[in-house]
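Quick one: structure tokens for this chain, please?
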Amino acid sequence: MTAMDARVREVLRWLERRGTARTREEMLTRYGITAPQAFGVKVGVIQQLAKRLGRDHDLAEALWKTGWYEARLLAAYVDDPAQVTPGQMDRWVREFDNWGVCDTVCFVLFDRTDHAWRKVESWSRRRGEFVRRAAFALLAGLALHDKTMGEAPFRRALTLVAAAASDERNFVKKGVSWALRSIGNRSGALHAAAVKVAGRLETSAEPAARWVGKDALRQLATRKPRRA
């Protein structure tokens, strides 16, 4: 057994001791998260452990390989965005099997990498449900977290939103709406552009697109953008 193997085993034992059947049940019945390998540990507890462990790219890769739900969430928190490669992103996204892992990895790790924008465009055209969901979870993360990016990339991304809005799969259409709303919350100009896209979608012949348009408009109407 290597030192890394021992470390991963110790982390898994730590997580197992803090897991509960009630949390496992809530994951499915309350949050719709299907994870066959889950201890039932609350996210806040995982975040506390991540702070203790610090950034460690090799540990993150080793935790990811275990397949455990909580270990994969922890991997997102401890990995170093500067060391994440495009190949790693593609490898991990192919293994996304629930929205909890998908959104956490995209929202706390992948959107901090230099490869994020390329993956938004690439994954938005892929067929897999959680790969496509990842494109828009990643786009939402960029819209909410990247304080320096100008408006042009987000305006271009609205075409990806419109193109994917007709996807009827639940996790995809919710991700598309999330991205559309997040873009609209960045600035007054992007808010107007997002409302325009949502308005077109609301009148679409496609049921999923209509749902995305209505869902986005309902929230955009009640939230002011962060910048005028």
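The radius of gyration is 18 Å.
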